[in-house]
Amino acid sequence: MPTNQRSERSESRRDTTQRDGVQPRTKPQIRATVRTSRAKRSLEARQRVRDQLTAQLISLATQRNAKAVSCYLPTPGEPDTTGFIDWARAHNIDVFLPISREDRGLDWARLGAAGTTTGLHGIQEPVGEKHSGEILSHLDLLVIPACAVDEQGMRLGWGLGYYDRLLASLNTLPPVFAVIHDDELLAHIPADTHDIPVSGVITPTQTRLFSNNPG
Ligand SMILES: Nc1nc2c(c(=O)[nH]1)N(C=O)[C@@H](CNc1ccc(C(=O)N[C@@H](CCC(=O)O)C(=O)O)cc1)CN2
Ligand SMILES: Nc1ncnc2c1ncn2[C@@H]1O[C@H](COP(=O)(O)OP(=O)(O)OP(=O)(O)O)[C@@H](O)[C@H]1O
After folding, report:
1. Which of 194, 196, 198 most suits a substitution to test ligand 2, by most atoms within 8 Å of the C-beta?
2. How confident is the model at residue 215 (pLDDT cuts 50, 70, 90)?
3. Measured from the CB, is residue 183 less than 6 Å from ligand 2?
4. pLDDT at residue number 50
5. pLDDT in tens, 120-179
6. Smallest Cα–Cα separation from 146: which of 124, 128, 166, 131?
7. Mutate to test the pocket of ligand 1, among 80, 81, 104, 123 (most ligand atoms within 8 A of CB)
8. Which parts of this chain are annotated as the region Disordered (predicted)?
9. CA of 80 relative to ligand 1 center, distance in Å
10. What are the distances in angstroms from CA 131 to CA 98, 104, 135, 138, 171?
């Protein structure tokens, strides 16, 4: 085998063993990679992730003595927060969930006896009294979805700007934790000036607080 071929093969083997795989560069490339890897997860793997995340989130909420939190109801590919939401409700912790508006703003309602209904993006949303985003300023902990997070705490979403706008609009920002799978914690995500770093990240195996953020 010519030398150049051998070196190409060893290069590609090294890339696939790196934690981020072949490091994607642009936001759309990262979103495409994560979308594909989420779609490949088996039901068993999703259930394992849910159980691990439940433990991480219970531990975080307990340490912070949280009485009211925001969270999200997952799409089939997203890290599953339903175990935590069930636990929170059983422990009388108020759980506020997002309601998507056409103008890419978010309203919020407390999850209660009225349950949920299918919203704008096919996501389950709470039925009940709607509040503006400002209600989140009064909560103890914000648990938010993400596509990926980097080692500096920069968060990437799905490109619609819902959470970027929300976080920018709050006068007081409680600790914000993004929930992702382990392989979605990347070395670097390109940041725009409107991107606001999160306080921490939760994966099935770790809860990490970023040092640049008091959270
Ligand atoms: N569960 C959940 N609720 C949420 C959000 C979210 O990201 N997840 N949002 C956050 O802004 C807002 C709604 N915005 C949305 C953003 C992206 C997609 C979407 O279709 N995303 C992916 C698929 C996600 C996946 O594979 O895990 C896509 O673009 O294909 C839907 C709604 C409010 N509620
Ligand atoms: N504070 C803001 N005010 C108005 N528009 C914003 C703000 N922040 C972001 N946007 C707009 O939202 C769009 C998506 O931004 P970006 O690609 O950073 O999304 P994202 O991190 O995937 O979003 P999110 O998770 O919030 O949905 C961009 O067009 C951006 O200009």
Report:
1. 194
2. low
3. no
4. 98
5. 999 999 999 999 999 999 999 999 999 999 999 999 999 999 999 999 999 999 999 999
6. 166
7. 123
8. 1-42
9. 13
10. 10, 15, 6, 12, 16
Q: How far is CA 177 from CA 56, 88, 208, in A?
A: 11, 16, 9
Q: Look up the pTM and report it.
A: 0.90
Q: What confidence tens digit (pLDDT) does each residue in 37-68 have?
A: 999 999 999 999 999 999 999 999 999 999 99
Across the chain, mean pLDDT equals 90
Euclidean distance between CA atoms 191 and 193, whole angstroms: 7
Q: How far is CA 135 from CA 106, 146, 174, 193, in A?
A: 11, 21, 11, 25
Number of the ligand 2 atom closest to the C-alpha atom of 27? 17
What phi, psi does 159 have (nearest 5°)?
95, 5
Nearest residue (by CA) to ligand 2, atom 31, is 161
CA angle, residues 191, 179, 101, in degrees to nearest 5: 75
Question: Tokens at residue 61, please?
Answer: 């909420």
CA of 198 to the centre of ligand 2 (A): 14
Residue with CA nearest ligand 1 atom 1: 74
CATH class of segment(s) 27-209: alpha beta
DSSP state, residue 178: E
